[in-house]
Amino acid sequence: MNHRSIRNTRGYTLLELIVSVGIFSMVMLIVTSAYLTLVHLDRKARATSDVMTNLSFVVESMTREIRTGTDYKCNTTGTNCATIPGTSFRFTDSRATPRTVTYSVSGGQIFVTIDGIVTALTDPRVQITTLNFYVRGVGTTAGDAYLPPQVTFVIKGTLQPEPGTTVSFSLEGSATERFIELI
Predict the structure, then answer these.
(1) How many domains does the chain have?
(2) For residue 85, is it within any domain?
């Protein structure tokens, strides 16, 4: 009987097993690290999307309400502020029982005040640094007297989808009154 043929059929040596387990461990460590990174990036993307959805909802609801409102007042004075922006905006909504609606920013949040009741509109993870309203077509300013009232608002700030991460943004929305006020 040939000793050499028996020796080759016995199995793996201890050294071969240690090397193969080591290689397997290194591959698993790399794969696990990549997987955890992907999970973290997915959470960050979902959180950013969630915050952006909230902000988009705020902009859309502001635009819808402004479009159907009347009696626009920039900074509650009722004048045009087409060149120098106002920091708040007030109007009368189109409900069966009209209400006074005011949009403003305070403490980094956008607030709506409806007949004296104040409600925050933005998610606490959104920090508003600038909320400017440009209003034209109200009052009796020469040249603007025949324009339908139009409001443009600019919102700037940062999103914080997770602690330690901020994303800057700048949005602009515009609405023209649906019902033309006849002077």
Answers:
(1) 1
(2) yes
Report yes or no on 73 lying in a domain: yes
Q: Which residues contact 164 (CB under 8 A, 6 or more apart)?
A: none
Per-run averaged pLDDT (10 residues), the chain, 183 residues: 57 90 96 94 86 88 88 73 83 87 92 92 90 80 64 90 84 81 52
For 158-170, b/e burial (b = at least 16 CB within 10 A) is ebbbeeeeeeeee
Q: Is residue 107 part of a domain?
A: yes
Is 51 contained in some domain?
A: yes
> Side-chain half-sphere of 74: how many Cα atoms within 13 Å?
23
pLDDT in tens, 104-124: 999 999 999 998 899 999 988
Range of the domain at 155: 29-176
Triad 156, 157, 161: Cα angle to 5°: 140
